[in-house]
Amino acid sequence: MSPGGHLVITTIACAATAAATGSAALTAAVAAGGFFIDVDHAIDYVLFDGQRDLRPQAFLRYFLEGRVQRAVLVLHSYELFALLGAVAWWAQSPLLLAYLFGALMHLGLDIAFNGRVTPYSISAFYSFGYRMAHRFDARALLGMSVQRLEGGFWAQFFQGAPALEPLPETVVPRRTPASSSTS
Question: For a pLDDT cut of 90, what percent of the chain falls above it?
């Protein structure tokens, strides 16, 4: 989903949380999980891809044009959500539960909308172990080629990435079940 889409949906979820609970802390936790979870994209951009252009336009274009080299995305993982869910249950933490609500909403939207921009399994992509098994190689994980985008920052912020062309099969082979041979 586009960053703007996450912002709009998270704003609605935060308004509902504030109206239902009256708690600024719970509302902030939903916002952290629903929108600010994407801070891990910035961490990947700087630490793992070595990018230094911190202008919002450059950062957004880098992702939307399919230029990402490493997809570590530690906050976008089933494994972290399971761990946080266990801690929230054990600690009986409403704040952690509110964060998880926002984060699960974010992840569900990512799976629903980002699946259209990759020829590979978007559901598997959100497993940290799966990404690690592929050495966090974004091209191998997502199978996309680089494409130039048109339009200004706000259009890209709210529209997100268009469906990208997959890499040729010779570059990133699709995984297929091993065929059994009969002798």
Answer: 57
